[in-house]
Amino acid sequence: MEKRAELYRGKAKSVYATDDADRLVLLFRNDTSAFDGKKVEQLERKGMVNNKFNAFIMEKLEAAGIPTQFDALLSDTECLVKKLDMIPVECVVRNYAAGSLVRRLGIEEGRELTPSTFELFLKNDALGDPFINESHVVSFGWGTPEQLARMKELSLKVNEILTALFSDAGLLLVDFKLEFGLFHGEIVLGDEFSPDGCRLWDKETRKKMDKDRFRQGLGDVIEAYEEVALRLGVPL
């Protein structure tokens, strides 16, 4: 597989074309950003940790029947993925109150949510990724009702699988975001799953083990990511 021109440079990853029209290379960089890119730093080893963490999670999901974009690890910081026609909607599942939910609704952080909530956000940094509903998605042509139903179904199944996986590692899966795209007409889980895009707390101490350590200036960001990986058995 030949890696070719850079097609897109995001806040933490770069996307490259290949000699296969259906495949891309994702490069996980050490760049770390928060607050829609207003806070940016370089964190040593982050690209490697997130690349291998993502590969581990995606393989677990594939084994459980979730169609994913991931194909194979190529190096410490690169992986081969399917080329998706991305749907510009973020699906967020919350098991405990944290982040924007706390700010929007005045709910105390850490409150268990029963049942888990499912939310939609428009993927648009310039607008601050605003909260939207299913009617917006359909009315503005970002997705069809059938695609939305499949995205919700897969998101809740991912939650079921990963809640158990992290629980066995002594961690609470507080919340997470997923992105989906189309691959030859099929809804497929895309982007990445790493501590950058979810919240993970230690079950006993409620210590934060995710990107909130960067957002809130708690320090030891990559050390926390590596501890989560160690608990899960991710080969770093």
What oligomeric state do these chains adopt?
Answer: single chain
Secondary-structure-derived class: alpha+beta
- DSSP helix count? 6
Low-confidence stretches: none
Strand runs, count: 13
- Give Rg in angstroms: 17 Å
Envelope shape: globular
Task: Report the major sheet.
Answer: 6 strands, antiparallel
Element-by-element helix/strand order: EEEEEHEEEHEEHHEEEHH
Helix-residue proportion: 25-40%
Beta fraction: 35-45%
Mean pLDDT: 97
Distance between the termini: 24 Å
Q: Can you tell me about this structure?
A:
30% of the residues lie in helices and 36% in strands. By secondary structure, the protein is of the alpha+beta class. Strands 8, 9, 10, 11, 12 and 13 form a six-stranded antiparallel sheet that branches. Strand 4 and strand 5 (39-42) form a beta hairpin. Helix 1 runs parallel beside helix 6. The longest helix has 24 residues, at 145-168. It starts with a strand and ends with a helix. The mean pLDDT is 97.
Question: How would you concisely characterize the structure shown here?
Answer:
By secondary structure, this protein is an alpha+beta fold.
